[in-house]
Design goal:
- The protein is mainly α.
- The protein contains 36 helices and no strands.
- α7 packs antiparallel against α8, α28 packs parallel to α30 and α30 runs parallel beside α32.
- It starts with 23 loop residues before the first helix and ends in a 6-residue tail after the last helix.
- 39% of the residues are buried.
């Protein structure tokens, strides 16, 4: 067949079968996929090797955490995979723990949330604690382990019992990073450690935070930077560097974490307050209060600081409202708000509102049992004490003595000695007010005396002790307890090292007390001892003693009393402080001499008084007494009678003096609206003496002209009866018997109408017995 020469069929064009090699396409694609998978590491080449696979993951983890800006999610995934297989490859345990510790440390630095970052620091520390530097193959990893382990320990936080030496050691490890090592959070963590020292190392904290913020890498979370800025600003505030604090605070924007924004605003507000930028600070505090999620407690706390801003911008109404809000809390701001509220009330005009002051000041000391327990730095104790002083003073002036006493009770917690003194003063003022109002004051006066006496026992200085004992004696005297008065003054005079003027004054007061205690012999002895001192007793004391001796109505003391008044009255040089007692002595001595019917001598003293003190408080009484002396002298008969010209002169002067008393009293009544009981009596007596003088002058016309106004003023009183008696005699002088009898009938009708209580005396014209005996005797049966 090989030599077959037959012709071959003609050639035709080749056409492939479309279905013959279709299987080759998927086989090709499968090969490509296997190649790519092997190249990317998705499919193992050759026989699977778990150890090699694990070493690759360790290498990948190290590469990831050493990047300048690692991907946080990729780093977390690698950490999860390596940690899950760590126990399966014990031969790589050291490398794995080092890589895991380093990875978790880096992940902590990349984590913005502080709590989550602490979890990562904890995991880092756990892995670092499982290895030592000697186990590491690369010598350069030893310093890295020490540095990174130190960061992890600081990130987790040292135990509360850690010593300062431990803290300093950790700080030294963080201070210098190994070669080519990114310090990361090392400086921030160093600052945390510096601030936990006692006292805090503010210099180290400032330097570390400044380095952290100025050299932070691009991977540092903005939240971490914001927290560091806040912390550094706080350090500057504590270092009293407000301008630097403001610089960092103003770099914290609204995108910072909420737990940073509000404290940053609050700190900036404090900085502005320190600069007295009250409006700017108020804006910041308003922002803090309106921050989303702000708790009621936080709002109440910030209300105090905002209230301070409003207080300093003179918006007292807004400040009061804010302090009231803050005072509802339980922290130092609440207690400080109570103090500020009390101070506002005390300095304001709402006396009724001050009733809240005792409760406010008690709230300020809630939980404080003694001075040492007071720890409120917002209002130091030295600033609080004046508020208590102001409270006692203002409430006492208000007459709110019970409220003042309650303030004193709270005051005693922090200033027991001073509070006892204020308590005694408050009780003394209270007793004086009760006495003035005609109420039972003696128990309160006794309580004040007891407080003063107890206070004296705690005072070491004799001069202070004697002063307090004299106050106690004054209260015992007011309470009507002469025995205690004498006992306290006797104790006072026995104190050592007292100045001579003080001893003299105490002896004089003792003499007064002895008179009240019905011991005139001892009183004279005490007075003589006082006057024998090199320093004479004061004008005031001599006057008081003289007055008391005379008022005792004891014959053996009368001459001594007049002698003391005469000593004062004869003073040629009178200081302004002595003028009151000098005038009283003159009018008092004039009156005492009048009572002995020595009107000529009395005139000398009284004329001196009205001449030297024409506008003095005793001038009306002095003119009344002087006028009485003149009409008495003018009425003398016999050999010692004055001549007619002198009689006329004396009666004319007396009329002038009496009328001046009446005119001055009417002017005073017009000005003040009313007269005191004493001024009313003086005016009446002067008016009666005008009529009496006209009667002596046989001038019934002027008497009858003056009488109607006086009668109208004293209708329905025994004074009306006296005036009518003078009218009766005036009609008799005019020889008008009908009108005189008519007047007598009018007197009888009035006498019968007056009740027994209308006659205040037991003898003389103001007694009922006088009228019954002299004017209206009973008809004999």
């Amino acid at each position: 067949m090989a030599t077959d020469t037959a012709d071959r069929p003609a050639a035709t064009k080749y056409r492939p079968d479309p279905t013959r090699h279709v299987w080759q396409v998927p086989a090709f694609l499968l090969g490509v996929a296997v190649f790519v998978g092997a190249w990317q590491g998705w499919l193992p080449l050759g026989t699977p090797d778990p150890t090699a696979d694990y070493t690759r993951e360790l290498a990948a983890l190290r590469t990831a955490y050493e990047k300048v800006n690692p991907d946080r999610d990729d780093l977390r995934d690698l950490l999860t995979r390596v940690a899950a297989r760590c126990d399966a490859f014990p031969e790589y345990a050291t490398a794995a723990h080092f890589a895991l510790g380093s990875g978790y440390a880096r992940l902590a630095e990349l984590t913005p949330a502080a709590d989550e970052a602490r979890t990562h620091w904890t995991l880092a520390r756990q892995h670092f604690d499982l290895i030592t530097a000697e186990q590491l193959r690369d010598p350069a990893d030893g310093p890295r382990l020490a540095f990174r382990s130190a960061k992890a320990r600081a990130g987790v936080g040292l135990p509360a019992a850690a010593s300062p030496a431990d803290v300093r050691l950790l700080m030294s490890l963080l201070a210098g990073s190994p070669a080519n090592e990114d310090p990361g959070d090392a400086q921030r963590l160093l600052a945390d450690l510096a601030l936990r020292l006692a006292p805090p190392d503010l210099n180290a904290a400032k330097d570390a935070l400044t380095r952290y913020l100025t050299s932070a890498g691009i991977a540092t979370p903005p939240a971490s930077l914001a927290r560091a800025r806040l912390q550094l600003a706080d350090v500057h505030v504590r270092r009293r560097e407000p301008d630097l604090a403001r610089k960092w605070l103003e770099q914290i924007g609204p995108d910072a974490p909420p737990e940073v924004v509000a404290p940053a605003k609050a700190l900036l507000a404090r900085v502005r307050m320190a600069d007295e930028d009250w409006l700017g600070a108020a804006r910041d505090w308003e922002a803090v209060r309106s921050a989303p999620g702000a708790s009621q407690e936080a709002r109440a706390t910030t209300a105090y600081y905002l209230g301070l801003c409003r207080l300093n911008t003179k918006d007292l109404a807004a400040a009061t409202k804010l302090f009231e809000e803050s005072a509802k809390g339980t922290n130092d701001e609440a207690r400080s708000a109570s103090i500020r509220l009390a101070e506002l009330l005390l300095k304001g005009t709402d006396a009724a509102g001050r009733a809240a002051v005792p409760d406010l000041l008690a709230a300020a000391l809630k939980g404080v049992a003694a001075r040492k327990d007071y720890t409120n730095t917002l209002i130091p104790l030295n600033d609080l004490l004046p508020v208590f002083e102001l409270g006692v003073t203002v409430l006492t002036v208000d007459g709110a003595y019970e409220a003042a006493a309650r303030v004193v009770e709270s005051y005693a917690v922090v200033a027991p000695s001073r509070a006892r003194e204020k308590k005694a003063e408050t009780l003394a003022a209270w007793a004086t007010a009760l006495q003035r109002d005609g109420k039972d004051f003696k128990p309160t006066a006794l309580a004040a005396a007891a407080e003063y006496e107890a206070l004296a026992g705690s005072q070491p200085a004799p001069t202070a002790k004697v002063d307090t004992l004299r106050r106690a004696a004054g209260m015992y005297k007011a309470a009507g307890d002469p025995a205690r008065t004498v006992a306290v003054l006797e104790a006072a005079v026995q104190l050592p090292s007292l100045p001579d003027p003080t001893v003299s004054g105490v002896l004089a007061e003792l003499a007064e007390a002895l008179v009240a205690g019905k011991r005139p012999g001892d009183a004279i002895k005490a007075l003589n001892e006082a006057m024998a001192r090199t320093t004479p007793i004061s004008t005031a004391v001599r006057y008081r003693l003289g007055r008391q001796f005379l008022d005792s109505h004891k014959p053996e003391l009368a001459d001594l009393g007049r002698n003391l008044l005469e000593q004062v009255a004869k003073q040629e040089t009178v200081t302004p402080a002595e003028r009151e007692y000098h005038e009283l002595a003159l009018v008092g001595l004039g009156y005492e001499v009048m009572r002995t019917n020595n009107y000529a001598e009395a005139e000398v003293w009284l004329r001196k008084q009205v001449t030297e003190y024409p506008g003095g408080p005793e001038a009306p009484l002095g003119r009344l007494f002087l006028g009485i002396c003149l009409i008495q002298r003018a009425g003398v008969s016999g050999a010692s009678a004055p001549d007619a010209a002198s009689v006329t002169r004396m009666r004319d002067e007396a009329i002038k003096l009496f009328k001046q008393v009446v005119a001055d009293a009417d002017a005073k009544q017009k000005k003040d609206g009313k007269l005191s009981e004493r001024d009313t009596w003086v005016r009446l007596q002067a008016g009666l003496r005008v009529l009496q003088t006209y009667q002596q002058m046989h001038n019934p016309k002027d008497l009858l002209a003056e009488a109607p106004a006086l009668l109208e003023r004293h209708r329905g009183t025994v004074d009306e009866l006296i005036i009518l008696s003078l009218v009766y005699h005036a009609f008799k002088q005019k020889n008008e018997p009908g009108l005189s009898l008519q007047t007598r009938d009018q007197m009888k009708e009035l006498f019968d109408r007056l009740p027994a209580r209308a006659f205040p005396a037991t003898k003389g014209e103001y007694s009922r017995e006088y009228w019954e005996k002299v004017w209206f005797p009973a008809d004999p049966k």
